[in-house]
Write a structure and sequence with these properties.
The chain has 395 residues and is of the alpha/beta class. It contains 12 helices and 13 strands. The protein folds into 2 domains: 151 residues, Rossmann fold, CATH 3.40.50; 178 residues, Rossmann fold (3-Layer(aba) Sandwich). Pfam families: ELFV_dehydrog, ELFV_dehydrog_N.
Length: 395
């Protein structure tokens, strides 16, 4: 990780010797407002990964036109235990990992991390959910900091004393909805009629499942899904009601009829018009990139591939909607929560902002024949640089 003219401004390495908790907070740039970005809890999270994600948040918030800067948090969590939403769906034992990852220990890790960085919230940093964290972890975070404005993505029941500014948990599906909007806008611009378009979604978590829900509702045909263990494929389109029942019951894809199952590595070879990687960082690699035949890739996850691979796709004529354009629904929801909006007003804001940014980026990209990432980066940088110049002039 190296500093440049944009940041990072603050890097915190947290350690609690009593618990064995290690974590990182990177506040990249606060020219537009306090750094905003979620906290992930994974076994192998690194300072470099957190920095890359924080920088992505700088551009994401800028392009979305909201008064937040970029930041990200990460806690080394020695378990594959899922977030609190999975606990609610599958029971307490779903939270227990091979390495003692109990709900109590997870709470202790989160609150230790919160106390370490609490002095930076909410003026410099506002937390939110991310991989393996959800509304309950955000409740735990604000309990530790003592400030309900130190995090967003909190439970809907957690409100200010006057009953306003209630939580808007990411479990409402704002990110997946935003990815769906970006996909719809891109398809309407590129192919006009989205009905019958085939889509493959890599992932079966919050973002992927809500993307599935909305896209199939609009007539898109999802032909493949993948979770961490396996994939399913049906060229005629997966059974919408059956998949939705699995989501509702918190079941994995292994419970889908066996005739649709394919090896996880075969997912990338599935013929589809659109690919939505909505799982983990760097999921598209040199090893699987040649298997992909989609003409449109919408990055539902953060940093799903290197810029080198993304450029290779662009050179071959594949349109890639960058992560900080497509998956900004979560942070737009965070802004809506910060302003005290209702869920209905939040979803309208997500649709309006992502529709506008996706259309603006794609139209300019097609007009000047440059990749969507290059165009989006220019637009995002312009806004941040203008804010930095204004701060320097007035500060």
């Amino acid at each position: 990780m190296t500093n440049d003219s944009f940041g990072p401004e603050i890097v915190v390495r947290a350690y609690d010797p009593k618990l064995g908790m290690r974590g990182y907070l990177v506040i990249d740039n606060t020219a537009l407002g306090p750094g905003k970005g979620g906290i992930r809890m994974t076994p192998h999270v690194t300072e470099e990964e957190v920095f890359r994600l924080a920088r992505t948040m700088t551009w994401k918030n800028s392009l979305a036109g909201i008064p937040f800067g970029g930041a990200k948090g990460g806690i080394v969590w020695p378990s594959s235990a899922p977030s609190s939403v999975d606990l609610l769906r599958r029971g307490t034992q779903a939270m227990e990992g091979k390495n003692g990852g109990t709900p109590e220990k997870k709470k202790a890790f989160m609150q230790s991390f919160a106390r370490t960085i609490g002095g930076l919230t909410p003026k410099k940093y506002i937390a939110g959910p991310d991989v393996a964290t959800g509304e309950e972890e955000m409740r735990q975070f604000v309990e530790a900091t003592g400030n309900p404005r130190s995090a967003t993505g909190k439970p809907a029941s957690l409100c200010a004393k006057d009953g306003t500014h209630c939580g808007l948990p990411h479990e409402l599906g704002s990110t997946g909805f935003g990815v769906s909007i970006a996909t719809r806008v891109a398809l309407e611009l590129l192919v006009r009629n989205i009905k019958g378009t085939t889509v493959a979604i890599h992932g079966f978590g919050n973002v992927a499942t809500f993307a599935f829900k909305y896209l199939t509702e609009w007539g898109v045909k999802v032909v493949a899904l993948a979770d961490s263990r396996m994939a399913i494929h049906d060229p005629k389109g997966l059974n919408r009601e059956l998949v939705l029942s699995l989501i509702k019951e918190g079941k994995r894809l292994e419970h889908y009829p066996s005739e649709a199952r394919i090896p996880a590595e075969d997912f990338w070879s599935v013929p589809a018009d659109v690919l939505i990687p909505a799982s983990v960082t760097d999921v598209i690699t040199d090893a699987n990139k040649a298997k992909i035949h989609a003409k449109l890739i919408v990055e539902g996850g953060n940093i799903v591939m290197s810029e080198k691979i993304e450029n290779e796709f662009a050179e071959s004529g594949i349109v890639v909607i960058p992560d900080f354009v497509a998956n900004a629904g979560g942070v737009i929801s965070s802004y809506a929560e910060y302003r005290g909006y209702s869920p209905e007003k939040m979803f309208k804001l997500v649709e309006a902002k992502i529709s506008k940014s996706t259309m603006k980026v794609l139209k300019r990209s097609l007009r000047i024949k440059r990749s969507p990432r290059e165009v989006a980066m220019e637009l995002a940088r312009e806004r941040v640089e203008k804010a930095m110049a204004h701060a320097k002039k007035t500060g």
